[in-house]
Amino acid sequence: MQQFIMTLIDGINLGSVYALVALGYTMVYGIAKMLNFAHGDIIMVGAYTIVVFITRLSISVPLAMILCVAFCALLGFVVEKLAYKPLRHATPLSVLITAIGVSYLLQNLALLIFGTNRQFIVRFIDVGNFNLFGVSVSGISVIIWVTTIVIMIGLYTFIKKTKLGRAMLAVSEDKGAAQLMGINVNRTISITFVIGSALAGVASILYSAKYLNVDPYTGSLFGIKAFAAAVFGGIGSIPGAMIGGLLIGLIEALTASYLPFNLNAASDGFAFVILIIMLVLKPTGLLGKKNTEKV
Amino acid sequence: MKRINLKSHRNLIFVAAAIVVYAFIAYGMNSNLLPRATQTLAIKACYNVILALSLSLIVGFLGELSLGHAGFFALGAYSGCIFSINSNLPIELRFVLAALIGGTVAAIGGFLISSSILRLQGDYLAIVTLAFGEIIRSFIKIIPVTGGTAGLGGIPSLGSKLKTFTFSYVFVILTILVIRNIVASSHGRAITSIRDNAIAAESIGINIKLYKIKVFTVGAFFAGIAGVILGHYINFIEPANFNYNVSIEILVMVVLGGMGNLLGSIIAAVVITFLPEILRGFDQYRLLIYALALIFMMLASNSPRIINFRVKAREKAAGLYKKLFTRKEE
Amino acid sequence: MMSMAKRLLVLTFALVFLTLGFVGCGKKDTSGKLVIGGTGPLTGEASTYGTSVKRGAQIAIDEINDAGGINGIKLEFIFEDDEADGTKAKAAFEKLMDNGMQIFMGTVTSGAGVALNEAIKNEGLLHVTPSASQIEAIENPNSFRICFNDVDQGKAMAEYIYQKLGYKKAAIIYNQDDSYSSGLYDAFKKRWTELGGSISADTSFAKAATDFNAQLTKIAGSDADFLFMPIYAEKASQIIIAANEKNIKLPLLGCDGLDGILNYLTGDNAKLVEGLIYYTPFLASDPSEKVQSFVAKYKAKYNLEPDQFAADAYDAIYVIKAAIEKAGLTVEDTKLTAKELGEKLVPVMTQIEVDGLTGKITFSTSGEPTKSAKVAEIKDGKYVAKD
């Protein structure tokens, strides 16, 4: 039983990282209606900035964190400006392919700059372990839970309550009508990207603090899993991303731990099997809105 | 009248041209005028062309993004090669049968996956195909008959490079003929109409679901054949041959060739096959080039400024052409 | 829309130009030299292994050439990238043949090696792989290897742990996407259960995994008395750090892939592998003169400590040298084709004995090396031999 609870906690820990990444995916998708495939790779870049700032340059940790978020936001801004903005009126297929291109570009740039070898990161957030009902939980995981929940609530209120947030909501509902109401659609979408990338920056800090290493492919794996989580929860839905992330994390932990060992080697595929089953049953995901297109 | 004539004979013209190209390459191989590395890559180019054409049907014509094409490639490769290893027929017959079996198994996969996700489109469909590709790869690792992670060895060879190339080339020609004719037929027009406006297509009575299933099934069939060629070419396959990066590489061929342009896909597939050779020594930049190519192609085909530039350039070129040649005629 | 005829014309031209581009890649002048070719991953995720092999072999080649060659025969070494991928290896191998390769010292990884079996058989040339450890990688009669194969190593480790260390309950974590790791795992498990050992926790992870907590929870909750890690050092170091956080204090054991693990564990983390025991053919700390001379040269040239891949490649070149000497080749013989040389060199392979960095090596007819393995232990942050 103890063992089972610990596996569940492992799953929640992993899931909250997925959820954190999925939140960024889903926010951008919800507003701009485009899948930023490169979101995971921005996290990878963020983790490399941590390597450079903390391990190589020994900048103070709080400053390095701020620089990391700023760098990711800037990267998001540049990517949006150069690659996505010219495609505002293009087909979704073109946008998706461009995003895959950006993801590939970031990965291979990192590969050229830092090489294939995994970069190790010094432990820069040291909070020890917590004792939760007799089960020891790593402190950094608790920080990730809390951050994910805070970001989820923050995003939710930001979009519902602030002027900018409501402008975003309007853009996501109907670009044309939003334009008529005096909203600068183009700028709103750009801002969405910058916020999404800053979230990726936060995720990269927590990722680095938890796993203490990064390689050029880190983002693509987490990106794909988080992408699956966002789709699972219904892409565009903020609580959906949270639930999707946690579920994928739990599925992975449970399959890695409880599959009989002759099936063990396929544990990586099970999260995807459950994703497909989910989508076959409910094509818009768990909490996704049904979106009927009109002529 | 003349136009119709040309159309009805175009398959013949195509086959004739294909034979010329074949004769050229076969001569180069037989006389060893072609470097051996090029000879080997010619075979690789064959299955890459088939892969690019089969994905082109799905992405370029139907307009749905499939990120799991390597999954169909794998299904074909494993089923066809397992047959080939366990059969005692003459190798030529075995190879052809293996290709048909591989193609059929992959087609069944394509049928199952497309009919189970009929309600999905766009981004959702992309993630499902990606997931599907990963699932195939994961499960290959645990099925004993596939050799698991260590890979499946002992796949028979057709013999000389020329022979392997010849058989692969025939499959390339068949693939081009079938896909060209599908695209040029009323089915092809129905498929492109789904891409251009699904709602309008549905309103004129086109059965979108049926066509989606058909396109995925045909696309998967040919990807499966490509897998069998791969297996008989390197005589050894492992799950790593079919990872997500392979799906992306096939996508790059389709995009680079121009969406919905079969000839372009063929040329792009050949170029991408030879690219690592051309870039030897600079190979670490290859994936970077793919990435930039993807982005640039999309920007170029969508940015109003570049479209404008292209139209103007074309007009200017036409004007220049007119100027130059009308003067001469005068 | 272009007309069909025009399109075909374009296609034909494209093909003509592409092929023409490759005709006339001239061969180098290699008279008086024997050309040894090699392939291995220089780019991609396995690039460290390929790079080490290339460097280790180069040191041996330079040593031999500087000493005047073998009976006056100088060696030329060409190395092509194969990205550890079968199809790339195939093209790389043909490229080497285009450039006049006469003896093949490759591949570095098993998958690429198995993909070349057919070509190696057809060419009939002498093939020595430094590090492809999968059984099938040397199935041809003209193929030999320097490293131990996965099955023998897995078996040997099972016996060592059960008989010498006396542990009875195993926890295992292996890489499900790596044929080296899964090969060792299968062999270890088979022998371990034959011996009567039990497996308390049997876990695996995917190649791209970064989170090992679920696997480690399973291991922590089991009654295992050691943790067996048939994986490479890079992943192992991550797992060991994560295991420490879970308060797992099991004795750690592994295979030759763990060599170099201290490079990944800096500062306090280095203490986590105190007492780690692994099977290895090569120890950079070996006090013998030849090892120290190699380590010094390698460090001087590349500013790095050599790993077992470099040592295997170094030995592979000396094995080839021994075969050339045994067959009594002369400068005249450098004009022979790869196949003709193979006919002279392959039969003498079972007669040679090379005292290399990785031990005294002799070969069986199946191409497997016979050499004594070392078991190494990490003590006070250093690799030391254990008996």
Outline the structure in words:
The complex is a heterotrimer of chains A (295), B (330) and C (387). Chain A has helices at residues 2-32, 39-56, 61-84, 92-114, 139-161, 163-173, 175-180, 185-211, 218-233, 238-258, 267-281, and strands at 119-120, 129-132, 135-138, 213-214. Chain A is mostly helical and 295 residues long. In chain A, strands 1-4 form a two-stranded antiparallel ribbon. Chain A has a two-stranded antiparallel sheet with strand order 2-3. Chain B is mainly alpha-helical and 330 residues long. Chain B has a single domain (13-278), classed as Orthogonal Bundle (ABC transporter involved in vitamin B12 uptake, BtuC). Chain C is α/β, with parallel strands linked by helices and 387 residues long. Chain C has 12 helices and 15 strands. In chain C, the strands form 3 sheets. Chain C has a 7-stranded mixed β-sheet with strand order 7-6-8-9-10-14-15, with helices on both faces. Chain C has a 5-stranded parallel β-sheet with strand order 2-1-3-4-5. In chain C, strand 14 (374-379) and strand 15 (382-386) form a beta hairpin. In chain C, helix 6 packs across helix 7 (179-195). At the A-B interface, helix 4, helix 9 and helix 11 of A face helix 5, helix 8, helix 10 and helix 12 of B.
